[in-house]
Structure formats: C-alpha cells, structure tokens
Amino acid sequence: MSSAPSIAHELTVEYPGGSYPVRVGQHLLDSLGSTLRELRADLSDRVLIVTDENVEPLYAARATNSLGAAGFSVSTSVLPAGEASKRLPHVEDLYEACVRSRLDRRSAILALGGGVVGDIAGLAAATFLRGLPFVQVPTTLLAMVDSSIGGKVGVDLPQGKNLVGAFKQPLAVHIDIGCLSSLPDRELRSGCAEIVKAALLRGEDSLRGVAHLVDAVALHGWHAPQTTPILLRALCDALICKRDIVAQDPFEQGLRALLNLGHTFAHAIEAWSHYAIPHGEAVALGLLCALRLSQARGLCEQALVMQIASLLARLGLPVRLARAAACAHEILACMQHDKKRGADGLRFILLRRPGSALIAGSVPASEVLATLKQLEQDPPASEP
Ligand SMILES: NC(=O)c1ccc[n+]([C@@H]2O[C@H](COP(=O)([O-])OP(=O)(O)OC[C@H]3O[C@@H](n4cnc5c(N)ncnc54)[C@H](O)[C@@H]3O)[C@@H](O)[C@H]2O)c1
Ligand SMILES: [Zn+2]
Q: How many Å apart are CA 161 and CA 273, to the nearest integer?
C-alpha cells in the first residue's frame, strides 16, 4: 500500500553562512534516510529521533525504517504530548538520550512531531556537544507552515513561554503532508489561522488561495484528494512568506516582527484564558483585532475586516469572544507583560491591505481597549 515518495515543492531557506532545503510532498517519510545521506555525506551512522507519544505510534516506524535502509542506527526518545513537555527537565532527558545513543558531533537529531517537539529537540541539537546537525520533520499544520522554519528553538519557563532558546538552523525541513491525515480537525484549523496570517502578509493572490482552500474544505473535507493540491498550494505560499521575511531578518531584529501580525493580541488572549484558548484560535481573534485597529486608524477598508472575519468563521475559527468588554482590561494587562513589548510601548503590526503591513509603536491603551471590546460583537457581515 506504500507509494513512492514524491516531492511536490522544494524551496531553499538562506541564512548567514548557509542554506537548507524545505521539501514538501507525499510519502516523504519514506525518503528520510536517502535525503540525509544526500544532504550531508559526513553524517555519522547514529540518529536520534525525538517525538511525542501521539506521533510515535503513527509515524516513528516509517521514519526508522527509512533511516535504517540508508544505514543509520536509530534510537528514539518519546516525550509526553503537549506544551508541558517544552520544559528544561525534558531537555536534560534528551541530553541523557544523546549520551545513551552515543551521539557525536556528526550525528543528527531529528524532530518528528509538532512545534513542541521541534522546539525542544532543536534546543537539544543546538546545545548538546555545542551543536549537532538537526532535521525537522513537522507533523502538524502549524509546525509545517510556521515553527519548523526560521531557526528559532526553545523551551518555556514557569514564568513564561519560549523564554529560553537559541537560533539553530536545520539541515533540512522534510514535510510529508500525508501526516496531516491523522491530525484532529481542531489542530488543522489552528494551523490554518497561521496560513491566513501569512496570506495577509503576502498579498491578494495568497488570500485567494486561502479562500479556495476554505471552499474545498467545506465541499470535500480536509483529507479529500480534491483538497490536497489546494492545501499544498496554501501551505507553500505560507512557507514562502515566512522564508522571505526570515531571510531578510534571520536573528529577529526588525522585519521579522511582521510575522507577529495578530500575535500581540493573540498572546495576550491565550495568557488571559490560562491557555484554555489554543494558539490558532487566539490568532484568529488577534488577526481580527489587528484588522479592526488598522481600520480604526484609517489604514484599511472595512471590506477587508469583513472578508477575513468571514474566512475565519468558515474555517470554524472563533471571531467573537464572550465577555470581551468586561475583560478587556485584564487582556490588556497580559499584553503589557509580553516579552516582545517594544521600548515604544504597545506595538502592533497593522495592515493597509493584503501584502502591505507596517509596525505601529506607542499605540495608546485606549485604542487597544476599544479594539478588544469589539470582540464581543459579531463582526460586520460580508456582502453576499
Ligand atoms: N519556533 C518557532 O518559530 C515557533 C513558531 C510557532 C510556534 N512555535 C511553538 O510550537 C508549539 C505549538 O506547536 P503545535 O501546534 O504543532 O503543537 P504540538 O506539538 O503540541 O502538537 C499538537 C498536538 O498534535 C499532536 N500531533 C502532532 N502531529 C500529529 C499528527 N500528524 N497526527 C495526530 N496528532 C498529531 C501532538 O501530539 C499534540 O498533541 C508551541 O510550543 C509554540 O510555542 C514555535
Ligand atoms: Zn502563531
């Protein structure tokens, strides 16, 4: 029943001092071993796969077989699933697994899983023996379009998310979209919020691609063969968006802030809900806030707010937040603790139109509160 691996798209991410390929296609788990051999001839024969307890029973055997067929000796470290694993004690567990597996500086660590696995495995790869080759094999839509590229890796502290980390560029990002077949719909929708964000940053064409995807999902479902090429295109557009921005600002000193479109609001909403609202759903609300704030400042048309609200709603993402008016001050307080808060106070990414974003510093709290309160209302409806 297994089919031959086929690469549908390949792009290259450049960073100072190097580059790496991002391959997207079907059945690519089965070509992992040959890809590693092709990309780096001097790799040792030992590979450590880092995965989680949900992904391991689904995909670890195929990854291991493919690596084994290329002559690698594979050990596997399985983390509990979920954000709670992105903690320093688990990094120490991974170091112990590296020692047990007798990894040396030419051995690869391979992250097989969502953003949690990628972030923590990447931190271990950045630091064990002062750095080992690292391969990303993302299995959630969010990890495919967002966390697996750009080189940011890290873990959470009890005081906040992603407070400890490093930049670790992978040797390759290997995306087998077949892995999405087992992903729960809620996770697919969450990843799609990032695709909408990327499309807003990239422009009208990409936004049309997302609208197409929403139509296909509504008509055929996420996993139908008719949906796959449309999903592939939207996914690649989002990857290109991130690739292009990251290439211009590899160490997050300026332009990369654009990738935070909707995220100042989203992070505050997530924290305020004590993470009961998942990231992708918070991003949907955050995108709507960013657009409403842009409109209130006379930057963008109301039609864009309507268009995006209807797109998000059709994806099954939230466009309203109950009790937003009563809780706006609490959400604002969470925003004021954001580690990315600029020296110029509250800073937001705003949009003039799809493909034209800007950074607005020193936004008065009163404007932010007014925007948050609007989340209690139904968004303006799109014309039929
Ligand atoms: N490094 C970056 O640039 C960056 C960017 C964005 C997000 N992140 C981080 O990514 C993390 C979120 O990533 P995520 O949403 O992928 O979460 P996740 O890794 O927790 O995965 C979500 C859930 O899906 C399960 N899962 C994964 N793949 C599956 C599959 N194919 N089939 C069935 N179940 C599967 C996981 O076990 C988990 O339960 C956060 O920690 C966030 O901080 C990092
Ligand atoms: Zn995000």
A: 14
Evaluate if residue 30 carries a pLDDT over 90: yes
Q: Is the CB of 54 under 6 A from ligand 1?
A: yes
Tell me the sheet residues that pair with 298: none
The arithmetic mean of pLDDT across residues 170-189, rounded, is: 96
Of 164 and 343, which is predicted with more confidence?
Answer: 164
- Nearest-atom number in ligand 1 for the CA of 116 is 19
Residue 169 main-chain phi, psi, to 5 deg: -80, 135
pLDDT at 2: 57
Q: Whose CA is nearest to atom 10 of ligand 1?
A: 115
Q: What's the pLDDT band for 343 if we cut at 50, 70, 90?
A: low
* Tokens 């997050």 sit on residue: 252
Nearest CA to ligand 1 atom 42: 115
Ligand 1 near 317 CB (within 6 A): no
Compute, in angstroms, the gap from residue 303 CA to the centroid of ligand 1.
Answer: 33
Q: How far is CA 262 from CA 52, 224, 284, 285, in A?
A: 29, 30, 8, 8
- Phi-psi group of 82: left, alpha or beta (phi > 0 → left; psi -120 to 50 → alpha; rest → beta): left
Asked whether 307 lines ligand 1 (CB < 6 A), one says: no
pLDDT band at 339 (very low <50, low <70, confident <90, very high): low
Residue 193: how many other CB atoms lie within 10 Å:
28
Cβ of 52 less than 6 Å from ligand 1: yes
